[in-house]
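ok trying this again, last paste got cut off
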Amino acid sequence: MTTNETKPHAALEKWTWILIYVGLFLLILGLATGRANEVMGWSVGVPGAAMAAVGVVLIYVRSRLKP
């Protein structure tokens, strides 16, 4: 059996944590980059924060799904 057969929402959980971790990494990278180049910092940090926010919303969506 694959993971998707044993756990119906496995793909949603996987993408949730990928979005959160990558988003937070990009946010921190944007903050660090913003000290040297403000425009580059914003262009990396804002999408990272948006990705992390989408990941948090997906946690809520997953909690509302029926097993």
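PB: full thing came through this time. The chain has a mean pLDDT of 91.
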